[in-house]
Amino acid sequence: MDVIALLPRLHLLRFPVGQAYLWRDDDALTLVDAGTIGAGRAIADAVTALGHAPGDVRRIVLTHFHEDHAGGAGEFAALSGGEVLAHQLDAPFVRGELPGPPPRFEDWELPIHAAATQHLPEGRPVPPAAVTGVADGDVLDFGGGARVVHVPGHTDGSIALFLPEEGVLFTGDTVAASPVDGTVIPGVFNLDRPRLLASLGALADLGAEVACFGHGDPVVGNAAPALRRAAAVG
Questions:
Q1: Is the pLDDT of residue 7 over 90?
Q2: Which of 5, 32, 148, 172 has the fewest C-beta atoms lying within 10 Å of its C-beta?
Q3: 3-state secondary structure string, the chain?
Q4: Whole-angstrom distance, CA of residue 10 vs CA of residue 212
C-alpha cells in the first residue's frame, strides 16, 4: 500500500484496487473508506508510520458498500475501536445483513470490471460489529464540520463528504480520474447512471478546491471546474 501526503492534514492510502483517505484533526483522525478485505492491518501500520496510534482513528466513514471500499472496515474497526458510519441505505449491506445489489454494467464496462476483479482478494469481509447510519445533510465532527451529501447512482446509499472550511470533497465512486491521463470522469459500475450524473452535477456546484476520488489521482487545487467538465460530458 502506498501512502501519499496530499495536504498537511490529508493522506491518500492507495491499495491495489481503490484507495482510502486519512484526515487529521488536532486530536483525532478520520478514515474515509477502508479498502478491500485484509486491508485493516495495512491501514493500522500506515497510521503508526505517520506517528499515530490506530486508536486515534475515531471514525471510519464509508462512501458506499462495495468491497473495495468497505471490505477492510470491520477488520480496522476491531483494531482501532473507531466508529463505522455509512448511509442508512447502504448500512445493511456493510453489516452483512443483506447482499448488496450488483451494478448494471454498460457493455464497455464489462472487460474493465473483469480485469479489476482479478486484483480483489478472495473471501468474505468481516462485518463491523456496528454501523451507524447517516443521512444527507448530517454534519460529522471532523475537518471543521464534514457535511454528508447523498449522491445516489453508484449505489443507492452512496455519499460524498464536503469540508467547507477546507474546500475538500471526498466523492467516493461518484467521480473518478482516468488512469490513462488523469481526466476527471463520471464513476463506472453504477446501479443507476442517470442518477449518478445528476449527483455529479450537484457535487460540481459545491465549489471544492480539492476532490478526492475512490479511484484515480485526486485533484489538488481548483477542483470544481474539473467536476463541472465531467458533469457536462457525462
A1: yes
A2: 5
A3: CEEEEEECCEEEEECCCCEEEEEECCCCEEEECCCCCCHHHHHHHHHHHCCCCHHHEEEEECCCCCHHHHCCHHHHHHHHCCEEEEECCCHHHHCCCCCCCCCCCCHHHHHHHHHHHCCCCCCCCCCCCCCEEECCCCEECCCCCEEEEECCCCCCCCEEEEECCCCEEEEECCEEECCCCCCEEECCCCCCHHHHHHHHHHHHCCCCCEEEECCCCCEECCHHHHHHHHHHHC
A4: 10
14-24: b or e for each residue (b if 16 or more CB lie within 10 Å)? ebebbbbbbbb
Q: Kindly report, residue by residue over 178-218, the tens digit of the pLDDT.
A: 988 999 999 999 999 999 999 999 999 999 999 999 999 99
Write the burial class of residue 211 (CB in 10 Å: 0-12 exposed, 13-18 middle, 19+ buried). Answer: buried
pLDDT at residue 20 above 70?
Answer: yes
